[in-house]
Amino acid sequence: MDKSKRKIFLASSAELVEDRREFEIFINRQNKRWHERGVFLELVIWEDFVDAMSQTRLQDEYNNALRGCDVFVMLFWTRVGMYTAEEFETAFGQFKATGRPLIYTYCRKITVPMDEIDEDDAASLLAFKKKLKALGHFQTGYADRDGLCRHFGEQLEKLALEGFFGTIPGPETAASLAAGAPSNTATLHGSGAIAQGAGAQAVGAGGVLIGGNNSGSINTGTIHTGGAMFLGPVNAGRDVVGGNQTVHQAPAVAPARSDPDLNTLLAGLAAQVQAKATTGQAETVAETVNALATETAKGDKADDSKLAHLVKGLIDLVPAAVGGIVSAFASPVLGGLAGPLTRAVLEKIQGGGPAAP
Q1: Residue 98 pLDDT
Q2: Closest CA to 41 of 16, 73, 83
Q3: Residue 317 CB neighbours (<10 A)
Q4: What is the pLDDT of residues 159-213, one digit of tens each?
Q5: What does the alpha-carbon distance between residue 204 and residue 217 come to, in Å, rounded to a whole number?
Q6: Cα distance between residue 162 and residue 315, in whole Å
Q7: What is the pLDDT of residues 212-255, one digit of tens each?
Q8: How far is CA 165 from CA 2, 154, 168, in A?
Q9: Which of 32, 84, 123, 151 has the most CB atoms within 10 Å of its CB?
Q10: Sign of dihedral through CA atoms 351, 353, 354, 357?
Q11: E strands, the chain, where?
Q12: DSSP 3-state assignment of 102?
């Protein structure tokens, strides 16, 4: 998988040296996860530059490096130093000219009285905040380093949803690929089982899991579903022995937990999306809705990033079903499970634009 490299320039005053170190560690750790999705995050910091004599100021070299970055992150607290302010001006000028770097400003919340802060420092802080307000750009406050890293991590996921890194797999797909899960390969569990279709898995002795288009007689033997069974669209030329004949049935959502309201919502969502989908989309719609059911079944432990990618996937697949998807997540049951990334996707489509460029 080709790596999509994005450069992140970090600027801050010297008083936030520990925050800088924590942010650097955070990016390095994030790279382990983003590497699986084909993305490499390169952090550009002044510590990486050589303090050797050059024909220009060393700050000029920082500024030139900044102009080649995709993201500019600025941290400030009780003061905004001259060089940090210069780096912001450079980043903002480059953004106006080219649309890059994207600019994020973070202000650590002040926990000491303002009258204990040096007057010049306080003046530089207030002047910078006034400048941001005039530009229509407002800083994000953070109370500690964990809050800073958590917020920026969420911003990276939002950027991924908006296509900032190009076309990359979602976190769930990437994790599966990183674990070595093959595609278009059947995996046998037990003996005597048969699996058909891309990525299908055999279910055990005497049982059959069938994917793709199939014709002719298929003898599955006795199937024990454990109380739930998923059926995609079925074209039956004659009676299905031991079951019901179903023609273009909307995908049924297998209840994953004892929450009738959630199951009802998901079943209704599946039916609405399926009604808007074409025949060729039916199987993918069914798989996506069931993946959504599996994730929402985790309740408060549901992965917001996975939910966001699944919702976006449904919208991209069947744009005509946007109304039904938004209505489903407007309910307290599903809406309560939507985190900031999922809400961002829903808010974007309600604003009239696509879920992602």
Answers
A1: 95
A2: 73
A3: 16
A4: 999 889 887 776 655 555 455 544 444 444 444 545 454 444 555 555 555 555 5
A5: 20
A6: 13
A7: 555 555 555 555 444 444 444 444 444 444 555 444 444 444 44
A8: 12, 14, 7
A9: 84
A10: negative
A11: 4-12, 39-44, 71-76, 102-108, 140-142, 194-196, 208-210
A12: strand
Q: Looking at 177-191, 278-292, 335-349, which range is the least confident one?
A: 177-191
Would the CA dihedral through 297, 299, 301, 304 be positive or negative? Answer: positive
d(CA 11, CA 84): 6
How far apart CA 316 and CA 250 sit, in angstroms, is 19
- The label of the residue with tokens 């069947």 reads 318
Choice between 56 and 274, residue whose per-residue pLDDT is larger:
274
Find, among 315, 316, 308, 337, the residue nearest to 269 by Cα. 315
Residue 107, beta-bridge partner list? 76, 141
Residue 149 has pLDDT above 90, yes or no: yes
Q: Is 325 helix (H, G, I), strand (E, B) or coil?
A: helix
